[in-house]
TrEMBL record:
SUPFAM superfamilies: DNase I-like (SSF56219), GTPase activation domain, GAP (SSF48350). It is found in: Cytoplasmic vesicle, Phagosome membrane; Early endosome membrane. Residues 132-151 have a biased composition (Basic and acidic residues). Belongs to the inositol 1,4,5-trisphosphate 5-phosphatase type II family. The keyword Hydrolase applies. Its EC number is 3.1.3.36. This is phosphoinositide 5-phosphatase. It is an enzyme of class 3 (hydrolase). Residues 666-850 form the Rho-GAP domain. It comes from the Eukaryota. GO terms for biological process: phosphatidylinositol dephosphorylation; signal transduction.
Amino acid sequence: MNCSATQSTLCHGLLPRQVCSAWRCLYKQHLWFEELGRLANLKASARSANLSLSFVTRLCFAFTVVLDSDLHVIGSDVTIQISSADDRLMVRLPFGSHTRTFLQEVSRCSPEAVGSESIKQNGKKLAVSQNRSHDSTDKSAPRQNKLKPEVTTEMVRSSNIMVSNKTSILSEPKFGLRDTIVKSQLVQMEDSYTHIQSFRFFVGTYNVNGQSPRESLQPWLRCDAEPPDIYCVGFQELDLSKEAFFFNDTPKEEEWFKAVTDSLHPDAKYAKVKLVRLVGIMLLLYVKADLALNISEVEIETVGTGIMGRMGNKGGVAIRFKFHNTSVCIVNSHLAAHMEEYERRNQDFKDICSRMQFCQSDPNLPPLTIGKHDVILWLGDLNYRLEDLDVAKVKQLVDEKAFLELCQYDQLKRQMNANAVFEGFTEGEISFQPTYKYDAGCDDWDTSEKCRVPAWCDRILWKGQNISQLSYRSHMALKISDHKPVSSVFDIGVKVVNEDLYRKAFEEIVRSLDKLENANIPSVTLSQREFHFEDVKYMQLQVEKFTIRNGQVPCQFEFISKPDEETYCKEWLIANPSKGFLLSDAEITIELEVFVNKSTATHLNSGEEKLEDILVLHLNRGKDYFLSVTGNYLPSCFGSPIHTLCYMREPIQDMPAESIRKLTLMPLEMSDDAVQAEKPMDIPKELWMMVDHLYRNASQQEDLFQQPGLRSEFEQIRDCLDKGMHDTLLGSNHSVAEALLLFLESLPEPVICYRFYSSCLESASNYSLSSQIISNLPGCHKNVFEYLMAFLRELLKNSGKNHLDVNILASVFGGLLLRPPPGHPTPDITEKRKAQQFIHQFLLREDNLP
């Protein structure tokens, strides 16, 4: 949620109860968790707090709600003004289901409840629809004819996005069980009231190599005589600066948005539906203005798959929406680079598919994944290369236009044929030369020292029915980048609703439902009720499945929290889906996922927490079912305190559970005292193993600490450290580097202890004060800090080969060694820069600390 104007805060006070509830709901819905799906097999992305409550504005009953944004144009951020006496509050709400929920709550307050004024739009009174019924089935009722407001030519250039019916947005009622049943049965009968109508989609992808738009994009975006109905335009490497990489901040977003807008087909008016960006990966969606009424349920999501499964230099962004009655998902991705990293690219694709989840407008339904859409269009720099051929042979085949033969050596084609990636997707025949790599400013192949083998890195694929590809081509006229843009035009059959047939189907369902309702109590059959997870390991997903088989009565199910517990399950467990709806005799498969990460590992190591839980499956208007979940966790150095590991001379999995418990629970303050029979090691042996491996093997490794490793190799490295197989660490240099970062992140007390966090930020520009802080760290923490700084300085001596610089290392390690204490607000850009600056000082100096 973005707050603006002079009073940027949420408000509480004498607001009507429903509106207060809406504010609280909206606040909770926009908390962003610090870790955004740490690894790809986490299926639920989490969110961390991105706003703060600076003060409270007290409002009396006589207040007005003014919607500054034009609700005829939906999709942009909606600005709300709330005025009371001398106070005025302005809040900008991002377009999406949560904002829609808030507007619904406001609309439910009658003018008398809201106060002496009506809800207003643009300073004019906006009447809340008086035609809405309190019956929960209204949401599914036959649709009202939509009035098309005038679409101005400024719609494209403004932040306003798409046309919709303002009344339906403000008067949309809550979802109930009956409504869900009607909707589900309408989906089953969809063929009876829809027909297929073709619409033209333009899909384009362009890796711009960090350049600004110095040339027109018309040769790419308006190369056909007929204007498309919908534009889907994706970019990669929008900005390659460190600022964009570490802080996701770039002025180039606006530059490229304007360049695209100015280059759209001149024979049609377009409205921007949505823009989404993650670092340098950006996706734009436009629709013909006269079709905008038919777009609804727009949602966006992003997934970073860079180092530690979090950095956004690689990953994907997506926009999903409903066009007429067809659900569409557009994905733009930038996958791992380098010839040999095809397995990492496969993993990136799977990560994006598993972690990309969209909220549904019905809160009773689970989030939508990419695969749950009728039409999926996937574009981007997928980075798959041509293998088993040298540069000269590839160029020869290109000159001969032997593209069919060349495709036999394409990694993506081979991986798709092996069902390793993009299963079920289709790609058109490639009849254009490879789009990578060129010298910028011309059409010459790469003449740099590396002399990259040409490759079709930039691709467009699709999945779904009624899709016909009309063209698939590159655009050689654009020359600012080392890539060439690619485009594809599709005719896509979309399900269009016949209103009369829809009404008939709706009435038939309601009559049938009236007969069934209250006849029986819902009941289900579970295929299994007891689950045991054997030998659970740190950051290694385990999944057990069971089925819920419904009886004769449609039912809504949900896992609910037990008394005195806030969530329905322990932090290391998740049920997917956790709620849903079943028609008569329907069946659904539930996955129980156990995943131990940094937030739970420490307590499992110490024995304070065990892998034991009871899940309560609740049926609406029915009974509860109880499921038992147990397991055993294999202790790991990941999630163990530094001082604990310094006392562990044996591998952690060779030690008795009681010894692990005592050492893990030993207070840090006691670790420097001679309370143990043996003197502790200076640094943990596991840390030494990883750093020593990198020092010996990776000092000249390009992109170290920037390119992620493979998950399978991380698991091997973790097992080597936990079991004492120290002769060699299995895995690539990138996997060992990522394991080191994950190890530092998993420490329950960071290398620079929490209590020094504020002091470090205050002394970030004073090396003398900073050195004094480090000297006051507990002995084992001070040793680890000095050891890591010495190692990083050694890496910088090889910067000509590994391309590392002090800013990269200070940014990567600043957020790991210097972390805010629990309960501290999420660091803003200023705090992140100070943490970077603090580490920066020690990378430039080799003085012995006091």
